[in-house]
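ok posting inputs for the zinc ion job
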Amino acid sequence: MEEHCLVDNLRYLIIILSFYLILLPGSFAQDQYVSEKLSENIYKITSGNSNSVLFVGNNSSVLINSEHFFYSEDIKDFINQITDKPVKFIISSHYHGHIENELFSVGDEETTLIIHENSLNRLLKSEQEGNTKLYRTISFKDRLDFKIDDEEINIIHFPKAHTDGDLAVYFKNSNVLFTGNLFYSNSYPFIDVLSGGTVRGYIDASNGLLKISNKKTILVPGNGKASNEKVLGNFKKMVINSKNRVQLQIHAEKQLKIILNERPLADFDADRWGRGLIKSHEFVKNLYRALSVNN
Ligand SMILES: [Zn+2]
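and the output
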């Protein structure tokens, strides 16, 4: 994802400027963070291209991160403006392990990190290399359910999708589903083959998320606006169609350069998918490489 850095920064500026212009009731902004209240006790917090979700209970809070889970003083200050209930759990929706030569802390003395075991292994490697400081962690394989006050929280692992350690988090009573980067509401997705992601797993994850969702579910992607089941259904169709098109070209033994020139996703480009973080040619390249490796 590093290749998106410059473009990300520009988009990030535009996003911040837009939010200052159209702040919604119950929402506020500070420096790089913008919050949006989704339900009685759930907030979406956006930083650059990355969404987090904050659940505020009677005595404590839970923070779920997508791309960034540095638990910095900045994010703490921002959360303090929303609530005085301390963050006890940080759930990491996934970890790529692409952050190198940069010391960062995951959590602090007050928090426990909840993470999939594959992502934890990557973090432990980073810790051994002296790049990461890890505090308390809980890791698991398939699923973790717990309850805070009246809210039932289901954390579900979807294998080999965006990475090999993706978690979705469903707040059952509030009917809010945080998908991490298993779903992009305004963009083509990114399948990180080097971190264990696969196209088949990505499509399976869309099916799994659709099973959890209903018409009233608020879906919070790791990237993009809060969304709904219908958009997720369209996203799944777009991913399947894109995969089939690129797969056909690979079977026809066409070179990537020629496939890109033919613009196989032109109709989707004109739709919402072509206007987001991941551009059409990037997604075609991503599919070509992922499908050439194993699926
Ligand atoms: Zn990611």
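notes: The pocket of zinc ion is lined by residues 67, 94, 96, 162, 181 (CB under 6 Å). Residues 1-26 have pLDDT under 50 and may be disordered.
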